[in-house]
Amino acid sequence: MTHDLPPIRESLEAHGLLARKSFGQHFLLDLNVTRKIARFAGPFDGRAVIEVGPGPGGLTRALLESDAGPVILVEKDPRFIPLLNELDDGSGRLSIVEGDALKVREAELATGPAHLVSNLPYNVGTALLIKWLTGPWRPHALTLMFQKEVAERVVAAPGDDAYGRLAVISQAVCEARIVMHLPAAAFTPPPKVASAVVHLVPHAETPDAATLKRLERITAAAFGQRRKMLRSSLKQLGGAALCEAAGIEPDARAEVIDLDGFLRLADALDRQERSA
Ligand code: SAM
Question: In sequence order, what are the beta bridge partners of 180?
Answer without folding.
Answer: 197
